[in-house]
Design a protein that fits this description.
The chain is an alpha+beta fold and 157 residues long. Helix content is 59%, strand content 11%.
């Protein structure tokens, strides 16, 4: 209880150095791995983003984790994400495993109640998406689609 606000200058210096080095290494790894690494296109990409943040926090704040171990974890997460996305663009089976499919919520003004229930979308959320698209009535739509990342796209007539 006596070390709540300050431990030692050595502890602060370690946190300072490890955070800077980890940050530089993480940015370099992300630049090397390409744009796709941090996009939130599907649940898999979201999980990787969270895991990277958690690993970064652990290596910077946990005194029991040395820099080399932390950088290895970051590199492995990025490598695994790269391999999975590489496989997913080449093999439909892998893509189907990690990617959600878009869902048609409404077509030509007709709302698909079963799809709303299956996708756990409320009428309020549907109406909000319509309002954001400048539509006040569902009859003014050609299609309303729940995209793979969870956003709702409205296509007008």
């Amino acid at each position: 209880m006596d070390k709540i606000f300050f431990d030692t200058w050595e502890s602060l210096l370690r946190t300072f150095i490890i955070t800077i080095l980890s940050y530089i290494a993480l940015v370099a790894m992300l630049r090397i791995s390409g744009k796709r690494t941090l996009t939130q296109m599907n649940a898999f990409d979201f999980i990787i983003t969270i895991a990277l943040g958690s690993a970064f926090a652990t290596v910077t704040l946990n005194k029991d984790v040395v820099l080399a171990d932390g950088l290895l974890v970051l590199a492995l997460l990025i490598l695994l994400q790269y391999i999975i996305t590489w496989l997913s663009v080449r093999y439909k089976y892998v893509n189907n495993l990690i990617t959600n499919k878009p869902a048609l919520l409404a077509y030509n003004g007709n709302i698909y109640d079963d799809t709303l229930i299956k996708e756990r979308i409320t009428y309020d959320e549907l109406e909000e998406a319509l309002r954001k698209s400048g539509i006040t009535d569902i009859s003014g739509t050609r299609a309303v689609i729940l995209e793979t990342a969870g956003n709702i796209t409205v296509i007008t007539k």
